[in-house]
Amino acid sequence: MNQQNTISAAPADTMAERARAIAPLVRAEAQASEELGTMTPKVVQAIKEAGLFWMLLERKVGGAQADMADCMRAWEEIAAADASAGWSLMANSTGTAVPYAYCSEEAVAEIYGGPELPIMAGMLGPGGSAKETEGALHGSGKYRFGSGSLHATWIGAGMFVMDEGGMRKLPDGSPVVRVCWRPASEVTFDNEWNVLGLRGTGSVDYTLEEATIPAGFHHERAVQRGLRDWRLYDIGIPGLACAGHTGVALGLMRRALEEITRIAFGKKRPAYQTVLGDQQVFRHDFAYHEASYHAARDFTLRFYAEIQEYLEAGGELTPAMRARFRQNCIYVHKVAAEVVRFCYTMGGSEALREPSDLGRCMRDMYAATQHIFVDTIAMQDIAVPILAEWREQAAAQ
């Protein structure tokens, strides 16, 4: 593989520090990104130069091979500056790790061995179908919500695999979904992206028509074992996705708390005898929600640090451990929605009038809660292996 693919920043620094260094630019470009519908070229270039798109790639191909807790802090930093940029970054940085972790050596050499490292995006759930011939897939599909696709160089697309007898199934009876990777030049994009929140994510729809995906350039979506040396990849696609979404939610909470603090000491609401920041009920509720932010953040950072340590020590994730990726993600989004709503409500008309940073936090947060990964109905399935673990522990006492 081409060893010239090295990120420019010194290896001793962290992803969070790099993110913090470019956060002022990201914040300054937030309104322009929202109007453009995707990150501005200035923001994309800054993220490239900081190496943040490649934080989850191994060092031997030019990535940072960063600790998960460090990645979480980096996503939080960028999302606090602009949630759309944080969302795009998490989609690109986790997505860019996926084919590296799960495709064949030959595919990895082609995708990651060029003069510049690739940027991945796409919707990895099934949006199309394909038939397999001698290891290659041939199919088409229409896909929605390809976050970060407009500056990506490769696009992922999930496909059902169809055999003569119908849809191919896994041993547990669920359908086989192969994640297929093709150069962005082979994809047709619908550049319309008109939504309530996360307007700057460029989460456009796209189509893949009559595509041929060679063997090695597609892999099972439910894969739970990485093919590279770094055992972190054993968290699988759901683990990577949950981590990224959670990092964005943390950033949105932090930014909302920052904005309401700024407003609180320069605003006196009607019927209030003093500025909002000196009002007792506000102080009480602020302290409660600020604690909620720290509790959710500490839970998340500890959880991912422990998972990484466990995997790198040779451990294999149990069903309960895998369930906790989504448990953490859903829980943090619920907390974040409450924190951001409190801040928005207290912001009054300053949060209502456009443009408003706090108003954008509100729109972005409630757009984030609509993602399928944070649908609370999943908690009933998540609880099954976790309850089994608790029952086993209780029986052993």
TrEMBL record:
Residues 27-107 form the Acyl-CoA dehydrogenase/oxidase N-terminal domain. The keyword Iron does not apply. Keywords: Oxidoreductase. Residues 244-375 form the Acyl-CoA dehydrogenase C-terminal domain. One of its GO terms (molecular function) is acyl-CoA dehydrogenase activity. Gene3D superfamilies: Acyl-CoA dehydrogenase/oxidase, N-terminal domain (1.10.540.10), Butyryl-CoA Dehydrogenase, subunit A, domain 2 (2.40.110.10), Butyryl-CoA Dehydrogenase, subunit A, domain 3 (1.20.140.10). The keyword Oxidoreductase applies. SUPFAM superfamilies: Acyl-CoA dehydrogenase C-terminal domain-like, Acyl-CoA dehydrogenase NM domain-like. This is Acyl-CoA dehydrogenase. It comes from Cereibacter sphaeroides.
